[in-house]
Amino acid sequence: MPKAKGKSRRHKYSYNLNRKRLYRSARRRAAPRIACSHIRHAWDPSKSVAQNLAEMGLSEDPNKALPIPKKLGVEAESNGQQSGKKIVRKPYVVNEMEYEASLPEKKSNTLSRDLIDYVRYMIQNHGENYKEMARDEKNYYQDTPKQIRRKINVYKNFYPKEYKEFMASLKPEKMDVQ
């Protein structure tokens, strides 16, 4: 008896099949991953995302929270009719987030020790002559004069006090040499 035609043929890969959806439906629905610790501590896993956020005074959809008015006449009419406001049961979450956002940000910009040493060496030996710096044997990465100037400017911007002290320490040495 002959074989069925479809069985012996190689199966083609179906590009239109959404495999993510298949895996997602098989898994149990987990709680969302929350980055903010204030929200994480106030989260109630027995409630939906919308209910949790509404209790904290946060919005699930920013377009619904602050709608963009299309006409000025529509805005005046909507002000007269106020829909039922939701009760915020956990206002401390928003207050803590606002306080955290108002704190000044710490600058964490640093340069590598190698780059600092490289810039100091170049300034110490060549001063402001960037063409000489480009020809120096310690220029391992074969930086062009513009690239070296840029690195020196970055060093000046990141460490202005240290740069001034370094330049002040170089001046007396130059006077002694002459």
From TrEMBL:
Q: Which InterPro entries match?
A: Ribosome_biogenesis_Nop16
Q: Name one GO cellular component term.
A: nucleolus
Subcellular locations according to the entry: Nucleus, Nucleolus
Renumbered residue ranges of the record's region Disordered:
1-21
Q: Per its UniProt entry, which superkingdom is the organism in?
A: Eukaryota
Write down a Pfam family by its short name.
Nop16
Q: What is this protein called?
A: Nucleolar protein 16
By which gene is this protein encoded?
Answer: Nop16
